[in-house]
Amino acid sequence: MGVAETFAEGPAPGLIRPVQRPVPLRQSVYEALVELVVGGALRPGQHLVESELARQLGVSRQPVREALHRLEAEGWIDLRPSHGAFVHVPTDREVDQLLDVRELLEGATARLAARAATPEAVAALRATWQEGVAAVESADLAAAVAANNDFHAAVAEIAGNAVLAQLSEIVGRRVRWYYRKVAPARGHESWSEHAAALARVHTERTRTAYHEPVAPAAAASSRPGGHPKAGSHNGG
Questions:
Q1: Do 70 and 130 belong to one domain?
Q2: Measured between alpha carbons, how far is 46 from 48 in angstroms, rounded to an integer?
């Protein structure tokens, strides 16, 4: 009996599961600070005091210091010698470049989503759009920003491309930061554009359904009386 047969006959080993590890504290602090910046609690140009951030987050200064260095590397804050840390103030060029990238990603995402969308996905996307419109009409800035992010994330999910979704999430987080500034002015215009994207997804889904081959049983049931045409048969 060979080695492979010996092992095959023996009892199946138990499943090996990954060891559960808590998220490193520096990662949690980093995520918390990014969300404070994106959400507007820490505003562009604001001075960040390491000891104060540590006190508010309930941690020591070490993970805050590590998080601040990562935030600087990613462009969320600026570390100025002898002055400390400040929330980065985006330049017009930075905004333009980021929106150029998002436009490219959105074009690809929308094309994939239009081909892959199911009726249920379209309905869910429409519900998100309605939430965004309601937020704008009630002047709820936080809800409008969140709905805008949810809408773009939903389109990326419908597209079904994991790499594209990951890139869209990275870019979308920073766009969400920029969007807070223009959300009150963009308001209805922004959601009118989203409505156009929603209509495109819906139209493309209709086109796909039209060109999909109809099963013989479905074709038969669509005829008056629900029976195949007399004398019809497969020419094969």
A1: no
A2: 6
pLDDT in tens, 9-23: 555 555 676 655 677
Rounded to an integer, what distance in angstroms lies between the CA atom of residue 52 and that of residue 42?
13
Which pLDDT band holds residue 141 (cuts at 50, 70, 90)? confident
Beta bridge partners of 200: none
Closest CA to 30 of 59, 2, 7, 63: 63
Cα–Cα distance for residue pair 205/208, rounded to 1 Å: 5
CATH, residue 139 = 1.20.120.530
- pLDDT, tens digit, 9 for 90 and up, residues 60-84: 999 999 999 999 999 999 999 989 9
What's the total number of domains in the chain?
2
Whole-number Å distance between alpha carbons of 214 and 77 = 57
Q: Which H or E run includes 145?
A: helix 141-159
Domain membership of residue 225 (yes or no) is no
